[in-house]
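FAQ
Q: What does a multi-component entry look like?
A: The components come first, one per line:
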Amino acid sequence: MIEPSRIPPRSGIAFRLRSGEILEVIDPHGCQVADLLAYSADDVGEVISNGRTFDYEETICLTTGNVLWSNRSRKMLTILGDTVGRHDFLLTPCSVDTFRHFYPDKPIHHGCFGNLAQALAPYGISEDAIPVAFNCFMNVPLQNSGRLSVEPPVSRPGDFIQLRAECDLIIGLTACSAYSSNGGSFKPIDYRVILPPTAPNEPAEADQS
Amino acid sequence: MIEPSRIPPRSGIAFRLRSGEILEVIDPHGCQVADLLAYSADDVGEVISNGRTFDYEETICLTTGNVLWSNRSRKMLTILGDTVGRHDFLLTPCSVDTFRHFYPDKPIHHGCFGNLAQALAPYGISEDAIPVAFNCFMNVPLQNSGRLSVEPPVSRPGDFIQLRAECDLIIGLTACSAYSSNGGSFKPIDYRVILPPTAPNEPAEADQS
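Then the predicted structure of the entire assembly, as tokens:
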């Protein structure tokens, strides 16, 4: 098994994920959030969409078996495994503006939005092209009235979610920077890319020569 | 009072709405949905965002007093009046793809998405720049499990919602084309633009000469 890589607290990265590869996002210490974005590597105008996902999955609570869909109604990522079962696809990445709004007395941070913008810029993705992220482990309970709140994640150390790429993707991924989403603690996020399994009877290339 | 204009069944329009003007969206026959989009007239890269709205309003049920925020964390529209109290900001405009998915045995229509794309193209707004719309009168109950369904609107003939522009906007507005969102009937939507009231003691321009 490949060793996981680490995203330091309050930072973010971007990388390519090929069709069929499995991204595992791990909460190494527990009670932390990772904002996840996925763009088509062939055309970054195509990106995961909370609205299209809610349309086709007919739920706002996404876990094993659910698919994250793009703004062009294409499957982007399928959730293959999930030891937490509580994530958020309603709220936007924290940003300078959300820090000013929610934490006016605390130091301003550019947040997951700033980290994603920096990491995705080399792929030609602009700030305006950052939609609602799939917020792994983020705990946003809804009341019957529709009111929502951001509570500490229920994830424990080592909990993870696994997502299979359904096409070639550019991934953006953060260790969340906001106070409320991780219970006031800033922790790292780990991740690894698992290669697709080879079919047991698939002949090696050399056998065909 | 200005007479309302009519959007014919299964069609859409776009127009400018200046800061301070009030858009009234009316359901003339009841049980119909209108998909509403708003872009900054100064830079159409700025558009209403369900995620930023859920962030700042801390609810997914939006009615009188709530604000629709942009992807750049700016106020776009404030709901001033609402005789229905049930709208949706979770689901995307119906499209060729959603018709294929949900109504495979029925004739394919380009839907609110196609109508919005056509109406907004002259303003330089591309299909990929169409996010989740604010779906006036759309009835999307959520179960505690997170599962959602699209039910007939509860709006009665003459019901309306009023929204004040907080900056100069390009508005996209439709009479919905999908089967389930309007209970299987395709009806028109009416709308009118109400000019901002003049302050009672504001001198007329001529008085100042």
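Q: Is there any commentary attached?
A: Sometimes. For this entry: Chain B touches chain A through 35 residues (CB under 8 Å).
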